[in-house]
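Module 6 notes. Inverse folding takes a fixed backbone as the condition and produces residue identities as the prediction. Think of it as a translation problem where the source language is geometry and the target language is the twenty amino acids. Below is one complete input and output pair. Work through it position by position during the lab.
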């Protein structure tokens, strides 16, 4: 069983090929859009969408040079949550591939993908597990009991951890994404013994199981306004880009401020994880995942905390923290295994396209008691990607793919049921 997985939820185009029988990662590649969005201080959805339309086809071309389409057993794609204009690019390519190759299509929740990044290259899954998921869009504590039983036990009230770093870097005029930039400024401050600027620790006196970063982001801005550094930022247009970045990176104030943010933000995360651990002794494994779990201070502090509470700590490898398709392929193995164990659906023949409606009846795709797969499959039958794609070649795929940009009546993005906050993860109070 071989799985071709596609990730396009935000600003990274990624494809991976995984052996589903042993979870071996056979190939993976990613094209980041960071440089294109950097000057805007965040992801520009329309630009992202156009870059996906180009880069995903490039990656598929790379795949085709190494492997044959005929060995693929499943097409797997991130279908939520994320930027809808980004998600639909990957989903359109996945649909085109699935229909042309006549192989099943699975939708994978991006957050579950991050959780499964812990198990890339390992067939074993470790549950129950409590996960701190920190990314550009999410900050959550999730109790995971199985692929299908994941419960959000803490969420952010406002911004996410990664977003706070992104906004801080934007305020310093350092572009996007900000996580690595602020992290490395903070590390420099530590190595040069620069004292941090004192910033408040969010919700420190509140016995609430949740996170908050917008107040900290604002405190960062207020401190910045009091500094001489503000003048350099205001005059940024006077310098060429590299010179400006070097000036900021050599500024003691910028390093002190970055360290202040790093200390407050990570102390807040650790404080809330500790609050959770004190009250919940039943889960022995703890993990951090997501793009922002690459943060150096968070990685150090979480090791100390988990040792104190006698938890086993799992962390994704640094190269799998940020968005990638390998984690989506690995999550698909979890999903297929779970569904097989539950026997909730059986794949049957595709049958013929209904020539009048140009759609496939749902039951020709899945015998399905699983609502998630059912919704996804029915969306698939609604899409004009169902139009005849009898012969598979890159041209047809890129054509179908490019059409997804047309935004015409034939394709309704809403039918994908994509919503940034709509995760399939169950919430408990
Ligand atoms: O998971 P990811 O690649 O994309 C989303 O699903 O959002 O996470 C990207 C986020 C960005 O906000 C980025 O600034 C942040 O992760 N990030 C970091 C670090 N590296 C990346 N945040 C803090 N410290 C880092 N070292
Ligand atoms: Zn992510």
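Target side of the pair, the amino acids:
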């Amino acid at each position: 069983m071989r799985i071709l997985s596609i990730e396009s939820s935000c600003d990274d185009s990624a494809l991976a090929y995984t052996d589903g029988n042993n979870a071996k990662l056979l190939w993976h590649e990613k094209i980041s859009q960071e440089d294109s969005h950097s000057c805007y201080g965040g992801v520009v959805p329309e630009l992202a969408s156009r870059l996906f339309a180009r880069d995903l086809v490039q990656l598929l071309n790379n795949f085709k040079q190494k492997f044959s389409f005929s060995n693929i057993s499943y097409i797997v794609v991130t279908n939520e949550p994320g930027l809808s204009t980004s998600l639909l690019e990957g989903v359109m390519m996945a649909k085109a591939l699935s229909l042309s190759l006549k192989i099943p299509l699975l939708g994978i929740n991006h957050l579950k993908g991050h959780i499964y990044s812990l198990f890339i290259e390992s067939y074993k899954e470790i549950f129950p597990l409590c996960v701190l998921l920190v990314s550009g869009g999410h900050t959550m504590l999730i109790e995971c009991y199985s692929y299908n039983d994941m419960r959000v036990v803490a969420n952010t009230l406002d911004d996410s951890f990664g977003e706070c770093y992104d906004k801080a870097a934007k305020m310093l005029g350092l572009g996007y994404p900000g996580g690595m930039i602020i992290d490395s400024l903070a590390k420099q401050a530590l190595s040069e013994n620069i004292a941090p600027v004192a910033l408040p620790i969010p919700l420190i006196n509140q016995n609430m199981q949740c996170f908050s970063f917008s107040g900290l982001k604002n405190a960062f801005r207020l401190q910045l306004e009091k500094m001489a550094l503000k003048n350099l930022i205001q005059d940024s247009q006077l310098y060429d880009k590299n010179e400006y970045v070097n000036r900021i990176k050599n500024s003691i104030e910028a390093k002190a401020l970055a360290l202040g943010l790093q200390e407050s933000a990570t102390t807040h995360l650790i404080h809330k994880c500790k609050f959770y651990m004190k009250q919940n002794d039943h889960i022995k494994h703890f993990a951090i995942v997501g793009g922002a779990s690459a943060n150096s201070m968070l990685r150090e502090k979480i090791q100390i905390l988990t040792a104190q509470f006698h938890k086993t700590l799992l962390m994704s490898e640094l190269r799998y923290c940020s968005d990638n398709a390998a984690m989506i392929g690995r999550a698909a193995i979890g999903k297929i295994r779970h569904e097989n164990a539950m026997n909730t659906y059986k794949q049957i023949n595709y049958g013929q396209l209904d020539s009048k409606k140009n759609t496939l009846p749902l039951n020709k795709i899945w015998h399905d008691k699983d609502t998630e797969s059912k919704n996804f499959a029915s969306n698939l039958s609604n899409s004009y990607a169902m139009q005849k794609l009898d012969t598979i070649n890159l041209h047809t795929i890129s054509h179908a793919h490019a059409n997804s940009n047309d935004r015409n009546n034939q394709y309704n993005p809403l039918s994908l049921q994509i919503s940034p906050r709509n995760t399939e993860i169950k919430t408990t109070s």
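Reference fact for the lab report: Residues 252-279 form the longest helix (28 residues).
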